[in-house]
Specification:
This protein is 25% helix and 22% strand. The protein has 412 residues and is an alpha/beta fold. The protein has two domains: 243 residues, Aldolase class I (TIM Barrel, Alpha-Beta Barrel); 80 residues, Translation factors (Elongation Factor Tu (Ef-tu), domain 3), CATH 2.40.30.
Length: 412
């Protein structure tokens, strides 16, 4: 079965992804990663995170996938030397100059080619492998048939990674100049302001040499979404992805929450394990889709796996995100004799409210927050303070790291 690769925007998200089933995580330092707005990792945290991940028998990859200018190479060389003893399993790079420098300073660290490189053919993959890459993250614009054909034409030793879930960029493989033009923030250095997500109003459309030209623009009172992509979700198509020869299923979302990291990893893990165990008898479960509906997302689609961008640009039709269910608390312990679960508050939890408990390998189970008490055992009406310890009666065992969530999601 392919590897399940999850985003880790910080240490909390890394731990959540690994606990809930990811085989590997990808993260970034404080510079040279394509998600500069994420918390990301200090040098000390990278060393600690690598040790933590390896202790679980899993892998950690570092994103170095920006396109640095000449002024940045002195800092890049310094950073590579600082992480040279870290023991990272791979570096994710997009730029030939970065690749060359990484090979020189970290000659024994695997190199993965980022989707930013826009690899769309077997020839692209052969080229990157000839430079020392062991994996290529294919361009998101490829169809499932394209991926099959590339797999058939490249070396068996070369791994192919594809995105299976998360935000999609309206620009080819994420190479976009819109943010720099409109906001002065270079997306190719990790500072994307996401102007494709802004709300626009069109007052007049006219192209000088094409009078009467019509554009497929969706207009509402909130604006248009001519630039804003839907979110990718391939949970229903695990068998097809496996059969196409994909080596790694990648989930996007380093800027999303620890709850997002946990739920997406958990859901894809359940589906992948079910397919590995059942093969011909495998059946997709609607409850997996419902789990993914519980995290922050835009309208879901299957990207370009089954239709080309020219056929369907997969543009969003509604504003904002469908907000994830409230991440109420994380489990810290369980007392079997009293049937009480002990939790650390993440968001306000109210006594008597309906909730769900998520545990690795299972979908959310419903419960009511009954007999809520504080750390001293005194009855309370709610857990309103950040990181407040509290306990409630629970109808089933609770494991450390289980997630307590509210039952409502809404659009924002």
């Amino acid at each position: 079965m392919p590897e399940l690769l999850s985003p880790a925007g910080n240490f909390e998200k890394l731990k959540a992804a690994l606990l809930y089933g990811a085989d590997a995580v990808y993260c970034a330092g404080k510079a040279f990663g394509m998600r500069a707005a994420a918390d990301n990792f200090t040098l000390e945290e990278l060393y600690e995170a690598t040790g933590y991940t390896h202790a679980l028998g899993k892998k950690i990859y570092l994103a170095l996938n920006t396109l640095p200018g000449w002024r940045e190479y002195e800092a890049l060389e310094k950073f590579l030397k600082e992480i040279s003893e870290c023991g990272l399993d791979a570096l994710i790079v997009a730029d030939p100059g970065v690749l060359s420098l990484a090979k020189k300073i970290l000659p024994h660290t695997a190199l993965h080619i980022s989707t930013q490189a826009g690899a769309v053919s077997h020839a692209d993959c052969d080229f990157w492998q000839s430079l020392g890459a062991s994996r290529v993250v294919l361009a998101r614009e490829l169809s499932l048939e394209d991926i099959r054909q590339i797999r058939a034409r490249v070396s068996r030793e070369l791994e192919l990674e594809v995105f299976v879930h998360g935000s999609m960029c309206v620009s080819f493989s994420g190479r976009c100049l819109l943010s720099e033009n409109l906001a002065g923030r270079d997306a190719n250095r990790g500072f994307c302001a996401q102007p494709c997500r802004w709300n626009y109003k069109l007052y007049e459309i006219e192209e000088e040499k094409r009078p009467g030209m019509r554009l497929p623009v969706f207009q509402t009172e909130c604006g248009t979404f001519v630039l804003s992509s839907m979110d990718l979700c391939m949970i229903e198509h695990i068998p097809k992805l496996v059969q196409a020869g994909v080596s790694s299923f990648k989930i996007e979302g380093r800027m999303k929450s620890a709850y997002y990291a946990a739920v997406t990893a958990n859901t894809y893990r359940m589906a992948m394990d079910a397919y590995a165990a059942e093969q011909e008898r495998y059946r997709f479960k609607e409850e997996w889709q419902k789990e993914l509906e519980s995290v922050s997302h835009r309208e879901y689609c299957t990207g370009y796996f089954f239709t080309s961008p020219s056929e369907n640009a997969q543009l969003a039709k509604t504003p904002g995100y469908i907000r994830e269910k409230t991440y109420l608390a994380v489990a810290d312990g369980y007392d079997k004799e009293s049937g009480r679960g002990f939790f650390i508050q993440k968001n306000k939890a109210v006594n008597g409210a309906a909730a769900e408990l998520i545990t690795p390998g299972a979908c959310g189970r419903p419960l009511v927050l009954e007999d809520m008490r504080d750390a001293n055992g005194a009855p309370v009406n709610c857990a309103a303070h950040p990181f407040m310890p509290f306990s409630v009666k629970v109808p089933f065992p609770v494991k450390k790291g289980d997630i307590l969530r509210g039952t409502d999601a809404q659009s924002v």
